[in-house]
Amino acid sequence: MVNFEGDIQNAYDDVRNDKSQTNWLLLTYPTDKDTLALSGTGTGGLAEFTDKLKDDQAAFGYLRIVVGNDELSQRAKFVLVSWCGKEVKVMRKAKLSVHISDVKNIVKAFAVEIAASAKEDLREAEVKKLLQKAMGANYDRQTSQY
């Protein structure tokens, strides 16, 4: 079981609040112990969030991203990210799959879950495609005529 430090619940609520500019949070392990701490929040979206990730770090992130099939169907959708950089120690890697269930006890609402080990796994266009698929009907697609 993972322990939590910091004001994670308030940060989560802030990301979920459409009236707030905050659109991401990052949880990291500040020590080798099984404790996750709020290490940052921000307003710069996926690009800013991705810049905070390190190759020797295991972390969890939560993001609010506005997507839609057209300008009239723009909605906020949420993404849960499990980050395991390429240089993370073996024992920490092994515990991530167990700790994700504890994280989901706090981070309950999300449309897409992404396991990433390289920043390329979090390209904005690809993440938005995943979110659009999760939204259901896509009226932007071209249909074939009979």
TrEMBL record:
Location of the ADF-H domain: 1-132
Top-rank lineage group of the source organism: Eukaryota
GO terms of molecular function: actin filament binding
Cellular component GO terms, alphabetical: actin filament; cortical actin cytoskeleton; site of polarized growth
InterPro entries the UniProt entry points to: ADF-H, ADF-H/Gelsolin-like_dom_sf
Keywords per UniProt: Actin-binding, Cytoplasm, Cytoskeleton
The UniProt record lists the keyword Cytoplasm: yes
Biological process annotations from GO: regulation of actin filament polymerization
Any matching Pfam family: Cofilin_ADF
Cell compartment(s), UniProt: Cytoplasm, Cytoskeleton
Similarity-based family: Belongs to the actin-binding proteins ADF family. Coactosin subfamily.
Protein name (database record): ADF-H domain-containing protein
Species for this entry: Powellomyces hirtus
Source lineage: Eukaryota, Fungi, Fungi incertae sedis, Chytridiomycota, Chytridiomycota incertae sedis
